[in-house]
Design a protein that fits this description.
This protein is mainly alpha-helical and about 300 residues long. It has a domain of about 170 residues. Helix content is about 60%, strand content about 5%. The protein is built from twelve helices and four strands, in the order ββββαααααααααααα. Strands 1-2 form a two-stranded antiparallel ribbon. A two-stranded antiparallel sheet has the order 3-4. A hairpin with a 5-residue loop joins strand 3 and strand 4. The chain is globular, with a radius of gyration of 21 Å.
């Protein structure tokens, strides 16, 4: 897992180490540093290029007597945008929230998957975090018990809808995907880290398009990344070193998002904690890991922004 290559520490900027994942067994096979530029009105972010094509054979249910009887609905079909979604796209957040609440109260028996997603988005965008969390739990039950969806399917769906105005929706599915992966295996921790990375990219794109989202991200979204890091920390079925590395990598994602919303005090605390933990676990070997040098680099840049030079 380790990569001992180091970059020039005098070139200060916020950096994020990317993990090269073996998609068969999800083990981390390497790391390298990528630069993440500070978000401005003119900053452009490359959109994900995830194929949304699905084999028509996989989508068909076969009649035992022969012939195709019906098309199996995909997550893309189930969660297609609705009229409430379009209100959110037009930034009519409170109007969408009122309409969503009325829809859910009409008859709970007819609440669909799309209705729950819409309500979650409305709650997040008007600051109703507790109600959003309850709605997310309903989504968990639906996907686990009724749709029997696998965590990698949820994560892939989030990848495909990330970008433009569906970033908050992608964040919901990354959050659910991380919970589905669980924290009791190396595969699970890698999945959680992938979902944290997806939320980080979603936040970056979202803030590039609309800086008015900064207060919502700061108060309601970054906390989701902290929850994912806590899942990693509570894992007891992997080695302490693997857990520490995943913790540090997740901390870099958190620190980058805190940087994007100008929360430098939280950013400093996040990187410092990761550095201290790596030094505790790896001792003098900590310097061999790219994520350690990345945390040091980012902490230094945070100090530079917090305490600018007076000369």
């Amino acid at each position: 897992m380790a990569n001992e290559n180091q970059q020039d520490p005098t070139n200060l900027h916020i950096t994020i180490p990317s993990i090269v994942i073996n998609r068969i067994d999800k083990r981390s096979t390497g790391m390298h540093i990528q630069t993440a530029e500070r978000v401005t009105h003119t900053h452009t972010v490359e959109q994900p290029s995830v194929s949304q094509a699905t084999s028509s054979l996989q989508d068909m249910q076969i009649n035992p007597q022969g012939g195709v009887t019906s098309r199996k609905p995909t997550m893309k079909d189930i969660f297609a945008p609705s009229d409430v979604s379009h209100l959110l796209q037009e930034r009519k957040h409170h109007e969408a929230y009122v309409k969503s609440c009325r829809r859910l109260k009409v008859d709970p028996a007819f609440i669909g998957s799309r209705d729950l997603v819409d309500h979650y988005l409305c709650c997040m965008l008007v600051g109703e975090a507790e109600e959003a969390n309850r709605t997310k739990d309903q989504m968990n039950v639906l996907l686990k018990e009724k749709a029997k969806t696998m965590p990698n399917e949820i994560q892939t769906f989030a990848d495909t809808i990330r970008g433009e105005w569906r970033n908050m929706e992608a964040i919901l599915f990354y959050q659910i995907g991380a919970e589905f992966y669980g924290n009791q295996s190396e595969v699970g921790l890698s999945g959680i880290l992938d979902c944290a990375n997806g939320i980080n990219h979603s936040i970056e794109v979202m803030l590039t398009r609309d800086e008015d989202m900064i207060p919502i991200v700061r108060s309601n979204v970054i906390s989701l990344l902290h929850d994912m890091r806590e899942m990693i920390r509570r894992s007891d079925n992997v080695s302490e070193e693997d857990r520490c590395l995943k913790d540090a990598l997740c901390s870099v994602q958190i620190g980058h998002c805190e940087y994007l919303v100008d929360d430098m005090k939280a950013c400093e605390k996040t990187y410092t904690a990761a550095i201290v933990e790596m030094e505790r676990v790896f001792k003098e070997r900590a310097v061999k890991y790219v994520v350690y040098s990345c945390c040091l680099n980012n902490l230094g840049y945070t100090y530079e922004l917090t305490f600018p030079k007076s000369y």
